[in-house]
Amino acid sequence: MTSVLEPLAARYVRRDTDIPPEPDGVVRAMPVVLRLDRPPAPRTPVLEAAAGAALAVCLDPRAEPGGEWHDAVATWVAGRIRKIARRARGAHWAAVQELPGVTCVVDSPDGPAEARALLPGPVDEVPKVVSRLQIGGTELPSDEPGPPPPGVPVIWVNADLEMTVGKAAAQVGHASMLYAAARGLTAVPSFAVREARGDRWARLCDGVKGGAGVAVRDAGFTEVAPGTITCIATPPS
Questions:
Q1: Which residues contact 91 (CB under 8 A, 6 or more apart)?
Q2: Between the CA of residue 203 and those of 153, 196, 220, what are the distances in Å?
Q3: Distance from first CA to last CA of the chain, Å, rounded?
Q4: Of 100, 171, 151, 105, whose CA–CA distance to 130 is shortest?
Q5: 154: how many CB neighbours lie within 10 A of its CB?
Q6: Could you give the 3-state DSSP secondary structure of residue 82?
Q7: DSSP-assigned letters across all residues of 95-126
Q8: What's the rounded Cα separation, in Å, for the pair 136 and 140?
Q9: Fewer beta carbons within 10 angstroms: which end of the chain, N or C?
Q10: Is residue 50 within 8 Å of residue 177, measured between CB atoms?
Q11: What InterPro entries is this protein classified in (predicted)?
Q12: Which pLDDT tens digit goes with each residue over 4-55?
């Protein structure tokens, strides 16, 4: 069965086609809602939850041909895979659980980190419960999670860009999808997210050229210049 992620494999991995404009002129995005209680979970597990949730929607059985989500997900993947991150807690977080999507939970020493990726759709038709949520003004400081565990893919975030948590959440979601498309995954792995800068980042970029990683090159709509590599996903060590 052809994966809903096949267009990403063609564009980003095999370079068969360029990224097309929206086929019908409608701008679509996947809302990614981060649970940020008081106090919130640390930045790294929040980003790991966002990476897993975004991919989980795409690999959900409902997104397969004939499934109730297929048309929405396939139409979105066929264009630019925009994501818009927002924050929620309390009653707002509970309300978001009623919307079509997948919640990913990642354990941390400070408690579970959670993110819910919702079914993508037109940006001007976002449900009211989501449109009321914001991400601006929220920041999670860099933490120190230690080396990534063995046996899991790693999404390296370009620390020199100093992206906000909302921007970084969208980027790691892109990275998990591109990695899955490149590897032909049918299930969501446990991604580790780590920061890299300087020489380490330069080595990762060199590895992309040799096929050792999959890079996310940003379209430049927010925070960074077009073509900037924001994340690189690498296979388990």
A1: none
A2: 17, 10, 23
A3: 29
A4: 100
A5: 22
A6: coil
A7: HHTTSSEEEEEE--TTS-EEEEEEPPEEGGG-
A8: 12
A9: N
A10: no
A11: Pep_tRNA_hydro_II_dom_sf (IPR023476)
A12: 999 988 887 666 656 666 767 899 999 999 999 989 999 999 999 999 999 9
- Look up tokens 């790991």; give the residue: 48
- Residue corresponding to tokens 């709509």: 221
d(CA 48, CA 221): 23
Rounded to the nearest 10°, the torsion over CA 155, 214, 3, 97 is: 30
Give, for 206, the enclosing helix (H) or strand (E).
Answer: helix 198-209
Residue with tokens 């580790």: 192
Sign of the CA dihedral running 16, 17, 23, 28: positive
Question: At 120, phi and psi to the nearest 5?
Answer: -70, 155
219 φ/ψ angles, rounded to the nearest 5 degrees: -75, -15
CA distance 38 to 33: 16
| 3 state SS of 71 | helix
Integer angstrom CA distances of residue 132 from 87, 95, 102, 113, 153: 10, 12, 20, 21, 34
CA distance 228 to 174: 13
- Tokens matching residue 51: 């990476």
Residue 7 is which amino acid?
A: P
Tell me the pairing of strands 214-217 and 121-122.
unpaired
Task: Say if residues 58 and 73 touch (Cβ distance below 8 Å).
Answer: yes
Total-model pTM: 0.94
Q: What is the pLDDT of residues 72-119, one digit of tens each?
A: 999 999 888 999 999 999 999 999 999 999 999 999 988 899 999 999
73 three-class SS: helix
Under 8 Å between Cβ of 48 and 121? no
